[in-house]
Specification:
Elements (H helix, E strand, L loop, with lengths): L3 E4 L6 H13 L3 E4 L6 H4 L4
Parallel strand pairs: 1-2
Length: about 45
Amino acid sequence: MTKRVFISYAKGDKGYAEKLYSDLQQAGVKPWLDYGFSPWATLGSGH
């Protein structure tokens, strides 16, 4: 079974989050990094 991890981070920690992402991949984990994701982008659109 593949382990999956969601990584959420502050903008100032982007470099650390990218390093963590890479390290997790090398360890056989499937990380998901929230590049450009904003939950607020669709909330105000009426959809």
